[in-house]
Structure formats: structure tokens, C-alpha cells
Amino acid sequence: MPRRTTASEGRVELTWPGKVPLPAAVSPGPLTLRERVGEASGWQDRLIWGDNSLALAALREELGAAVDLVYIDPPFDVGASHYLRKGEVEVLAYRDTWGGPGYLSMLYPRLVLLRALMKPTATIVVHVGMQVCHHVRVVMDEVFGADNFVNQVAWKRYSAHNDAAQGARRLGAVHDVLLIYGMGPERTWTTLRAPYDKDYVAKWYRHVELGTGRRFMSSPLTAPGGAAKGNPSYEFLGVRRFWRYGQATMEELHRSGRVYQSRPGAVPRQKHYLDEQEGVPLQDVWTDIRALQGTHTERVGYDTQKPEALLERIVHMCSRPGDLILDAFAGSGTTAAVAARCGRRWVVIDRSQPAFTVIRRRLRAMTQRGEAGPFAVFDAMPAARRALALRLGEAELRARLLALHGATAWSEGQVTARAVVGESGDASGESTWPEGQMHGRRGEAAVVVAASEQRPTAGDIARWQAAARAAGAAALEVIAWVFDPSVHDVEAPGVTLWEVPRTFVEDEAIGPTRVSRLSLAVEVTAGVRAIRLADYAAPDSAGCWAHLGVDAIVEWAIDDRGQDGVFTPRWSTQRGRDGAMESSSPAIAGEGRVVVEAVDAAGRISRRAIG
Fold first, then answer.
1. Name one Pfam family in it (predicted).
2. Which 3 state secondary structure label does DSSP give 512?
3. Which of 140, 143, 348, 568 could lock onto 330 through a cystine, CB 3.0 to 4.6 A?
4. What's the mean pLDDT in 305-329?
């Protein structure tokens, strides 16, 4: 172990351009409940979609220091992008292009937020690459204290790597680094044992028992020191010696098959079976768990997915059943999947939409199979959106969105569409707010930008369309953060709907994207309904509008409970490895409102409302 610094020696601290002396406080906006999967009477595990700094601040307000184990697998700052691959579809999962100081400025405050959530007995495991492990370790010394450093583990992912091919002027990089820190000396810990190395087994467990095939090694039964040490002398299996045990014990070992005699007259030895050994205590170099390959059934198509065996080891080593595990860079959802199977509670967070849909699909399937309990889905985006609107103002937000959309400001006077506020406020066609306005023009189309807290309905779209026609516009384009599912019922070729990308709140200059359209058929038989996927259209990889068909859908679910704003799937299905998926729902009784949600291979989410 490294020598610790004393109080008089001070501490080593890493500085970089842009580092602040103390991370700025993060406003803990409330998380919005988006979905419930299953029924829970007490604690509910949580999947949080959004910026982890906002989510962690909100969790701190709600839970306090309640976390027993933190595992995070943040970006490695490799200067490349990572993808979700499903069949022939390849979609960007996240960009890992922070660049030195930016990377540390991203990670540093999040480590501070994570520390505030950890119990005094908690442990944190940070999974990083060789490019940044030295910097991250110094930062963790600062945040958690150098005296709380536990281990730096080298996880050997590959047996060889092609970055050291012929002509390379470097060694092959075949391992990642796990930095393990505790909150204090009383951290939860279980010493695990690893299987013996193959060479060790071949050298020492070289005997194979006839009949059973069990491998064993042998040790002497004779006792050095003889009579002087008080050891008994007698004849056993035709051999007289001083023995370690009394005659009765030796006879019992023989009856139980624990004595090995290579030939008649040879000195007997004691058998030790390989399958009864605990293995060697786990060291800080892990070579027995390999990275996932294409043949592994647990693969979900996520570039940087880690094997469940790796997380199982960490979970069993640093937590106990019932403990709470947190992963703020959830990626493919392996931490949640392993925590559920190991009887731990979990909270996982990711901001990437492809990652979110993969995690949710994986956990929904586990819940259906009984491998995971109920869980709730929360969204941090509404809080981030409100904070952005408060900081910039609605007018500035609207101007930025119009510019990114390639639209110019409306210059033909204020054209408004008055609406009468009704009681139903949504699918009935009445507006929940009194006035809509044309904000811009793109070609022959009028453009409306809904306010950040507005959720346009079918009625709103119809009124805006009438106002656009009255103003002489040939078409209407509506930009919003979120649309009510009823907008898909508007059958108007001249109307297109555009959604503000979630990454817009992170100052990414990405313009609105075309909202995908899910077509459904309702089949009524004997007073009950069944819903069938009929068609699906969305932007293709080039951004052009295309009818992709039902085959592009990888998962869909229905909610017939009608809880406003919270999706509670009564039934869901996913496309299997063979490509098959149910295209019709089970029978649905009653005539109430049913919300259908579908996810395509690119991770895009579409919702429709029936009834």
C-alpha cells in the first residue's frame, strides 16, 4: 500500500483549467415520475432519465446519505463516439470527446455529489480507462481522502489487442482500471476468492480419481518429529510410520475415500479435492472475466457494455442483500440488472435516449420473468427545462430554436388563434391555455414554438393550423418539448410536428427533429378491443422522412389505466433474438383511454392515445 501523507505534509491536489475551488451548488429540481412498472408497496427501484448532476442533487434532497455502494463507468475521454447497434441500425449513444480539462470538470462535481449520497460504511468503484486513471485517482484522493483509498484493480479485458500490431510503437492495452475508495475504515467488505489459475491446477491437482473424475492433490499423513512430538506409531495400509492422526481417524479417512496410495506398499497420503477448495483470495489483478463478445447472450448492442460477472463480483464484495446501489452512468443497465438478481435495491441514471430505452427494455423483460421487482421511471428533463427557461427567458429560447430550425421571425404582424378554455383541456380539442401565436416562417410554412411548459394537444394543432391559413401560410410546423399523444390524431398533410432534442438543454446546437408517427388499428370483437401496430414513419439516418414500417419497432406497450402523465404498462412486448414480436395487444375491456408507447431500433419513443 502507498505511504500516506501526514497532516503536516499537506495533500496532493490536481489542478486544471476551468477547475473551481468548490463545485458550484446544483439546484435540485424535483424529478418527474414518468412511468411505473409493476406494483410496489414500499421501496421502488428507480431508473432516472436525464443529467446525472440534476438527478443526484434531487436524490440528495430526498434520500440523504442512503447509498451503500456506488459503481460508475463514466466516459474514458478517448476522443471518439460510442454507438448502440441493433441489426443494421447504428445510432449514437454518447460522445466521449471531453478533452482533458473538460473531462475532469465534468467528473469532479459529480464525484462530490455522489459522496454526499454515501453512507459512512459505503464504497465507491470508479471504472476508468488507462488514458485518465492517473488523473482520476488524484481527484478521488481530493474528494474522498487519500486514506480512504482501498485498491487500484487492473481488469484484463482482452488476451491481446490489435493496437499493438506489427509496426506499433507501444504495448497492447488489454486492461481497464477500477479505483476503489471507501467513506471510512468501517466500510462494508467481503473477501472473495477466485478460481485457481489453470497452471496452478495442472501443477498441484494433477491426480484424477478413477470412477468420479474428481481432481485432487495429496499431502503427507506422516508426522515429522516422531515420538519426540508425541505422534503415534502403528501400521496403516501395510506401512508402519509415525502418523499425524490416531488410528481411528486414519481408518475413517480411508473409509471415506480420503486416502491416496499410489501403489501397494507406498506411503499413504491424504486427498484434497479441487472442487472443495475455496480458491485463492482475490487480488488486484483480475484475469478471469473477459469482455463481452458477439456470442454472449447478455449483449444488448451497446458499445461499452460491461459483463454481468464483473458487476456481480463488485456487488458481492462491497454490499450485502438489501443494500442500495447507485450507478450514475448506467449505459446498458448492467448494474441494475445485477443488483436486482443479487437482492439489492438500485437507482441508475443516464441521459442518453438510446441508453435509457435499452435499460428500460432490459429491466421490463426481467420484471416479466420475475428476475427483478417493480421499478419507477423518473425524468430529470422537466426540471432542467424549467431551469433553462428561467435563465434565458421564453423569448430567447424561442429565438434560438427558430434559428436552429432555419426559420425567420414572423414579420407580418401578430397573428393569434384565440381558443376557448374547456374543462377537458386536452384530447377533446379545447386548449389548456388561452392564446397561440405564429412565431416564425420557414419557406411557405408558418412556425409555432410552444412554450417550455406547454404540451400541445390535437385541439391546439387544429387552431394553429386555422390561424396559419388565415395568415396566408401554406403549411404549419409546430415545435415543442413534449406533445400530447392526441396530436397524432390530426390528419393534416400540411402540418408537421418537431420535437426539441433533450440535449438542447446542455447547450448543444442541435435543431428540432421530426416527430415520428405511429399508426394503429383498433379491432373490436365481442365488446372488447385489441390494438394492432399498423405502420410507423420517422426520419431515417439521413434525416429524411421515411415510412420505416412496423419492423422498425423493437418494443411496445399499452396502458389502459388512464393515469394522467404517468405511463403504467399493463402489457408490453419486445422483439426477440429471432426478430419476432407480437404486433397485436391482448383484449382490452371497456371504452376508456388507452395510451400506446413504441420504441424503434434507434431508441426513438412514440406515443399514441386511443379513446
1. N6_N4_Mtase
2. coil
3. 348
4. 97
Q: 27 with 558: CB under 8 angstroms? A: no
CA dist 222 and 232 (Å) reads 10
Beta strands (DSSP E) in 157-292 are 175-182, 193-194, 207-208, 215-220, 233-236, 239-242, 259-260, 269-273, 280-281, 285-286
pLDDT, tens digit (0-9, with 9 covering 90-100), for 552-586: 999 999 998 766 679 999 899 999 888 899 999 99
More confident residue, 182 or 18: 182
Pairwise CA distance, residues 236 & 247, whole Å: 8
State phi, psi for 484 to the nearest 5 degrees.
-70, 145
Cell numbers at 116, concatenated: 454526499
Domains of the chain plus CATH, in order, are: 34-193+282-379 (3.40.50.150), 198-276 (no CATH), 383-514 (no CATH), 517-610 (2.60.40)
Q: Decide the pairing of beta strands 67-72 and 80-86.
A: unpaired
Q: What is the CB neighbour count within 10 angstroms for residue 424?
A: 11
Alpha carbon distance 435, 474 (integer Å): 21
pLDDT at 426 (0 to 100) = 44
Task: Give the DSSP H/E element, type plus range, for residue 109.
Answer: helix 101-116
Instruction: Report how far Cα 430 is from the mean position of its chain's Cα atoms.
Output: 39
Q: Is 451 exposed, middle or buried (0-12, 13-18, 19+ CB in 10 A)?
A: middle
Whole-number mean pLDDT of the chain? 88
Dist CA 274 CA 271 (whole Å): 10
